[in-house]
Automatic annotation (TrEMBL):
Keywords: 4Fe-4S, Electron transport, Iron, Iron-sulfur, Metal-binding, Signal, Transport. One of its GO terms (biological process) is aerobic electron transport chain. Residues 1-31 form the signal peptide. PROSITE patterns: HIPIP, TAT. It comes from Arsukibacterium tuosuense. Homodimer. Residues 29-97 form the High potential iron-sulfur proteins family profile domain. This is High-potential iron-sulfur protein. InterPro entries: High_potential_FeS_prot, HIPIP_sf, TAT_signal. Belongs to the high-potential iron-sulfur protein (HiPIP) family. Specific class of high-redox-potential 4Fe-4S ferredoxins. Functions in anaerobic electron transport in most purple and in some other photosynthetic bacteria and in at least one genus (Paracoccus) of halophilic, denitrifying bacteria. GO terms for molecular function: 4 iron, 4 sulfur cluster binding; electron transfer activity; metal ion binding. It comes from the Bacteria. Transmembrane segments: none annotated.
Length: 98
C-alpha cells in the first residue's frame, strides 16, 4: 500500500497551488504584449491597428475578449497578444448580443 498520508497530501496540494499561481502570473505577463504588424499570423490575417472597414473593428468583434472600453484587449485569434480596439483582421465576426 502507498505511504500517502495527510502530510504528503498537503505538501503536494501546496506545491500544486503555488505552481498554478505562478503559471497564471506568467500567462498574464505574456498577454500584455501588443500585437505587432510584422507578426507572421497578423500579416496572414491582414491585421491592422486601425480598421478601414466601416462598422467593423476589434471592439465589436465576437472574438475579442476583456472588458469594453480598453484600448488594447486579448483576442482568441492571437493567443498571448493584445489587439487594438480600433483594429481589424480578416477573422472579424460580428459580436453577438448577450
Amino acid at each position: 500500500m502507498s505511504n500517502f498520508n495527510r502530510r504528503t497530501f498537503f505538501k503536494v496540494s501546496a506545491g500544486a497551488v503555488i505552481g498554478l499561481t505562478a503559471g497564471g502570473i506568467s500567462l498574464s505577463a505574456l498577454a500584455a504584449e501588443q500585437l505587432k504588424l510584422d507578426d507572421p499570423l497578423a500579416a496572414a490575417m491582414r491585421y491592422t491597428h486601425k480598421s478601414e472597414v466601416e462598422g467593423q473593428n476589434c471592439a465589436n468583434c465576437n472574438l475579442v475578449q476583456g472588458e469594453d472600453g480598453q484600448e488594447w484587449r486579448p483576442c482568441a485569434i492571437f493567443p498571448g497578444k493584445l489587439v487594438a480596439s480600433e483594429g481589424w483582421c480578416a477573422a472579424w465576426v460580428k459580436k453577438v448580443a448577450a
